[in-house]
């Protein structure tokens, strides 16, 4: 967790924004690229990822992932690689 805090601080992200609605920083365990991208791109508006996941439906479904990919292309994430990373990250949380 210390490593994550360092990573996020380096990027100038406030932890309060990144973890605002997860309620628990401990849920975020590894620093995957998608986690970092989520924190820097989405968290300022959406808070923690659980709020977003509750809107997307099950990301275990490839069709839902494809739908989210199309949505994010118009929604703050024009970079396809970054979309992939964020979707993978959200899908990982979804499976827990
Ligand atoms: C500048 C603020 C802002 C940023 C940055 C932002 N969003 Fe959003 N997002 C919104 C708003 C506003 C809505 C619409 C909320 C509503 O309908 O109540 C929304 C809606 C959504 C929805 C719901 C779509 C639906 O069809 O219901 C998802 C999923 C989503 N955002 C994911 C993301 C992800 C992932 C990121 C990061 C790549 C992101 N957002 C970045 C403001 C933002």
Automatic annotation (TrEMBL):
The keyword Signal applies. Residues 1-25 form the signal peptide. Keywords: Signal. The keyword Signal applies. One of its GO terms (molecular function) is heme binding. InterPro entries: Cyt_c-like_dom_sf. It comes from the Bacteria. This is Cytochrome c. It comes from Microvirga brassicacearum.
């Amino acid at each position: 967790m210390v490593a994550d805090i360092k990573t996020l601080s380096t990027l100038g992200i406030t932890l309060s924004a990144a973890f605002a609605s997860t309620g628990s920083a401990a849920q975020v365990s590894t620093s995957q690229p998608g986690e970092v991208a989520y924190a820097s791109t989405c968290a300022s508006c959406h808070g923690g990822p659980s709020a977003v996941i509750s809107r997307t439906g099950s990301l275990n479904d490839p069709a839902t992932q494809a739908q989210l990919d199309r949505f994010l292309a118009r929604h703050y994430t024009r970079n396809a690689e970054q979309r992939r990373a964020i979707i993978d990250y959200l899908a990982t949380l979804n499976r827990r």
